UniProtKB/TrEMBL annotation:
It comes from the Eukaryota. It comes from Odobenus rosmarus divergens. Its main location: endoplasmic reticulum. GO terms for cellular component: endoplasmic reticulum membrane. Keywords: Endoplasmic reticulum, Lipid metabolism, Membrane, NAD, Oxidoreductase, Steroidogenesis, Transmembrane, Transmembrane helix. It is found in: Endoplasmic reticulum membrane. Residues 13-285 form the 3-beta hydroxysteroid dehydrogenase/isomerase domain. Pathway: Steroid biosynthesis; Lipid metabolism; steroid biosynthesis. One of its GO terms (molecular function) is cholest-5-ene-3-beta,7-alpha-diol 3-beta-dehydrogenase activity. This is 3 beta-hydroxysteroid dehydrogenase type 7. The gene is HSD3B7. One of its GO terms (biological process) is steroid biosynthetic process. Belongs to the 3-beta-HSD family.
């Protein structure tokens, strides 16, 4: 918890505050935002861990709610100084329908924006995504690009489409007059692939490896770089930009920022092995056995199976045509815009991020070690 002589008079709202990223944002705010008087945590599914946070100097208000319900959002936003909107359906595995993804990610964001305008909340940070940019459906690489790098952002998948629409709504809302006559100040943060304690996809890879006798099979060439960023540094960037939005409104308002740190550039699978390797898993070099066309055939069969089985059960494996295409396309960022605009520096080194993540995997029951 933050200890400071600063006056505690600010109310923050974090939507999606019980998710993988949201929980880290909530905990980071309590540790590093000394002006907090109340922290509202809004989520469809509240975590039991919230109870332990209610013993500190900040009033932590858990709000079970749905961002698709405008009245629930307005009630949660009313009186907040800052909203960090991280709630979303992060689905590239076919679990939710395109309509549901749109309803949550786009309509939900519209509801948050309108709630800010109607209730007078002036500062809104949106958790966007690298996928707003790419990889695009043409498989064009984005090699160590930045916020100004030209790139043909062409999407068909519901998830990136919804994130792009939502981000555009947030940025267009910058400068709108809110209740009380002052302007709304918004910005969007674009994390690349987030990793760290609580990452469900890392958990899925680990359990898949345990099921396969401690082995994982390489599907992607090691040469395909994929940007990754530690969840603690993403959370820190949210806290910092939320603090600087008021002071640097003219510079930061209406801007997008990639989330970045010193995590190494590697293929998605090789990067995962930085944590799964020390936990006893091995990545087998099966690329010669599984050429890309065979992987695409298997991915397509998975998609067909998902469609056939849907009336009976949800079959949503990691490998599908979309995830294979994304994993197989280089997408890395190299930027310092957040540092230049609001003084961001990663809070956690690569070594610390790696150690924390390894410890989390090791703590999962049935570690292969
Ligand atoms: N995980 C990543 O690699 C990554 C990368 C870039 C951006 N993002 C973005 O970060 C945000 C958080 O992602 P995450 O990885 O923590 O996902 P997550 O699924 O762990 O967290 C999302 C949270 O939003 C909540 N939520 C979903 N629908 C809701 C609704 N209708 N009303 C209220 N709450 C709802 C969920 O209950 C969950 O707690 C998302 O907006 C996502 O697009 C994630
Ligand atoms: C089965 C193999 C082909 C394996 O290598 C597939 C990996 C695949 C599941 C992931 C590869 C890239 C990931 C995405 C990327 O990190 C960025 C994302 C944006 C974020 O907003 C949401 C998550 C994701 C779409 C992320 C999802 C998993 C991958 C597709």
């Amino acid at each position: 918890m933050a200890e400071s002589t600063e006056v505690r008079n600010l109310v923050y709202l974090v939507t999606g505050g019980c998710g993988f990223l949201g929980e880290h944002v909530v905990r980071m705010l309590l540790q590093r935002e000394p002006r907090l008087s109340e922290l509202r945590v809004f989520d469809l599914h509240l975590g039991p861990w919230l109870e332990e946070l209610k013993r500190g100097p900040v009033q932590v208000t858990a709000i079970q709610g749905d961002v698709t319900q405008a009245h629930e959002v307005a009630a949660a936003v009313a009186g907040a100084h800052v909203v960090i909107h991280a709630a979303g359906l992060v689905d590239v595995f076919g679990r939710a329908s395109p309509e549901t993804i749109h309803k949550v990610n786009v309509q939900g964001t519209k509801n948050v924006i309108e709630a800010c305008v109607q209730t007078g909340t002036r500062f809104l940070v949106y958790t966007s995504s690298m996928e707003v940019v790419g990889p695009n459906i043409k498989g064009h690489p984005f090699y160590r690009g930045n916020e100004d790098t030209p790139y043909e952002a062409v999407h068909k998948h519901p998830y990136p489409c919804s994130k792009a629409q939502a981000e555009r709504l947030v940025l267009e809302a910058n400068g709108r007059e809110v209740r009380g006559g002052l302007p709304l100040v918004t910005c969007a943060l674009r994390p690349t692939g987030i990793y760290g304690e609580g990452h469900q996809i890392m958990r899925d890879f680990y359990h898949q490896g345990l099921r396969l006798g401690g082995r994982l099979f390489r599907a992607i060439p090691a040469s395909v770089e994929h940007g990754r960023v530690y969840v603690g540094n993403v959370a820190w960037m949210h806290v910092l930009v939320a603090r600087e939005l008021e002071r640097r409104a003219a510079l930061v308002g209406g801007q997008v920022y990639f989330c970045y740190d010193k995590s190494p550039y590697k293929s998605y699978e090789d990067f995962n092995m930085e944590f799964l390797g020390p936990c006893g898993l091995r990545l087998l070099e099966t690329r010669l056995l599984a050429p890309y066309w065979l992987l695409m055939l298997l991915a397509t069969l998975n998609a067909l199976l998902q469609w056939l089985l849907r009336p009976l059960l949800l079959y949503a494996p990691l490998l599908n045509p979309y995830t294979l295409a994304v994993a197989n396309t280089t997408f890395t960022v190299s930027t310092d815009k957040a540092q230049r605009h609001f003084g961001y520096e990663p809070l956690f080194s690569w070594e610390d991020s790696r150690t924390r993540t390894i410890r989390w995997v090791q703590a999962m029951e049935g570690s292969a070690q």
